[in-house]
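During the first year of the project, the team set up a workflow for recording each protein of interest as an amino acid sequence followed immediately by a discrete structure-token representation. This format lets reviewers and collaborators read both layers of information side by side without switching files. As required by the reporting guidelines, we include two representative entries from the current panel. The first entry is reproduced here exactly as it appears in our internal archive.
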Amino acid sequence: MGNAEVAGAERAALIETFERLGPGAPTLCVGWTTDDLLAHLLVRERDPIGSPGILVPALAGWTERRMEVAKRQGYAANLARLRAAPGPLDRLMPAIASTAEYFIHTEDARRGNGEDPRPAVAAREALLWRWLGLMGRLFVRGVPSGVQLRTEDGRIRTLKKAAATVALTGAPSELLLYLSGRRSAARVSISGAADAAAALRDADLSL
């Protein structure tokens, strides 16, 4: 399965999850329902004015206003737009980035409603492991301790070196959820020095 196929499968899973849960369902994103999450995705991939605030805090207020505009279109209409095709901004993104985005937000909706993790897909896990290699250091840049990622099949990726190191062990998809701030929902184990583990738990992992 190629990268584009993996991204397409994750987008299909995201759409299916939105269809099944419907509007007003809780998510892992604090204060957001599925309506908000759907609007966020549409702004991200279709709104060149609103999307910069997703990554630039100074513009976040403008992004929120654009999300409110999108929400006024209604859940069904917004879902139809998402289902139709990826937006122009999304098509500019590499498949590996879209896969991570779709996976995280699918699990935001699913696990926010008490659902268990989906079965592992080897191609997806391989792609997300590569994504952690590209982006992992950004997630942990504010962590004072060393951070190491370990998969259950023995792969190791060191994101940050320090005298005291904490190791996160789990599937690449679960490691991604943890590092993207979904700590309570991620199926990972933590080992290492107690102070290093505490520093990781307390750190702001946002991009």
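The second entry, processed by the same pipeline in the following quarter, appears below.
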Amino acid sequence: MNVSLRHVLLLWVIFGLSAMTAKGQADTLLQIPVVEISAEGIRSQSPGSQVKQWTAAEINSISASDLSELLREEGIYIKSYGLGSLATSSFRGGAAGHTLVLWNGLPVQSPMLGQLDLSLLPLGSFNSVRLQRGGGSGAWGSGAIGGVINLENGISFSNGVGVSSETVLGDFGRLRQATSIQLSSKIFSSKTTFEYREARNDFRYPISPDLPEREQTNAELSQRIFTQDLGWKISDKDQLTAHIWHQNSFREIPPTNVQTRSLAEQRDEVTRTMLKYRRESARFKLNVKAAFFDEQILFSDPSIGLEAPSGFQTYLAEASGEFSLSEKNGFFIGHTQTVTQAEADEYRETAREHRWSVFGMWRYTARDLTLQAELRQESFDGELVSPVPSIGAEYSPIKNWLIKGKISKNFRLPTLNDRFWVPGGNPDLKAESGWSQEATIENRFLIENSVFKWSITGFNREIDNWIMWSPQQGSGFWSASNLATVWSRGLELRASSRIYISNLELFIDGGYDKTLSTNGGNSDVPGMEVGAQLLYTPEQMAFVSAKVEIRGLSISYRHSYTGASRGVNEPIPEFHTADVRLQYSGEAKQDKGKVCASFFFDIMNLYDADYFVIDRRPMPGINFQAGIRISYDHVKTNQ
């Protein structure tokens, strides 16, 4: 189906104008409650930034099985190498390493690669996923240039029992089975989750109009995930929690559409553990965390006799305190220590790295104004990084209107591979760093029982010492260097509505992003000419979604547009995709508990579009999946 960008934008503009035209009828603002899982307080709040948070219930209502699919729902550009393959994010024209992923407030990026494969991050065990667009290095450190994602495991002392199970079956051998068991009293809580995923990913795709379709081969995926969360409420003020996250993944690496076959495969085994202590009083909060992460990777390709094991261990410790001097003034201070060691055949010896940081924040809150200032000092193997300041503000000049903005300095330290890989690593690399600015105008209003919201955000960012791997003159290999200055700027438009008509609820959302991310300095790297748009960075993206719900039955439609971009080998054309979900949810209450059931059927790529996100890596055509989720919750009435 040939759908132009004009049609998508027309729908969005009509909706936005109709919402703004109706604004004059608003008399008050409906406040939509937000579930706050994070215990980070001031640190987790980001005045001036665009923030989106999903609860577990909201995640379950979306046809997303991993983090990359959830972010795509929010209009984030996901660089996917194909179904079941590597997926990374690009926030506001940034690189994959410019998205910082946190687990309960601690970074889980690979120190070897500086990024994380989002397709290997399942969502079943998290109570909350929080997304912050824009820079956040002042609060969170290295890598928080384009955006920050925090995955939270909440602890509930609900004095009850909860059990849930979900099964999903789909095309291309797709199977997902997830089970969660939660037991809690007034002082103890335990939540255990198991998840299994597998898929053959053997979809067919066209090569050219005069050739028959080809079936994708060597693309199987299997994954096992186990998480355990334990909580002990020592007193009304003290709480101790422990978290374990273990997963084992195997996947084959399929050939490109210009290759005849591939035998490559990769195995990942990850264990993450964390212990947290929290003490909270009326004016003071103390958080202490200790964590150990271990990740082992084995990449092999029998066709060339390659077997490349690698792995790392990271030890983290963090202590932070939050205190308030008055109702309007709050302060936050913290200190982190990180020690990493990594091994790979391409390192001459075991690579070691030590980082520490101190950071502080001040927050001022008045009736119509919120200010937050941050300052961070980081040390990297004994050398101090330039101080990282940030200031953000939100101001409501009149009822239901909000103006906010942020200015921040952000940075990313070179990875272990950038420094120690042989050949090509460069131990003298500088940290990527630069300033970013953003400003937003936002309006919310109520018409009878319906809620409308629209916003427009402008952003600007310039990063110096951009690290790139490129061929070096006079040598036969690629090497890491601080080659470029990258200038990113653009606009983000969002509009949403929640319309209530008798028993019917209508949800409409739309968005449009215009992003320019260009080389602003001298570079001899092919594809990085001065003024050229970065590779795999579309200038335009848009989406429109609608959902109708009545008495537990809902149907939703989402249409997205991704503009053309430049690939390494050839240009990547623009493309449209559309998804549909039909879902029914119901519940049965009993004296001792409640049983909930949800049935859903999804159609992905409704119009069977042929498209690529990465050149020569085909994406699947129209495909289907169906699933069922059942849960039981029982709350005790006695202690």
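For the second entry, the following points were noted during internal review. The CA atoms of residues 55 and 308 lie 39 Å apart. The chain is about 5% helix and 55% strand. Both points are flagged for discussion at the upcoming steering committee meeting.
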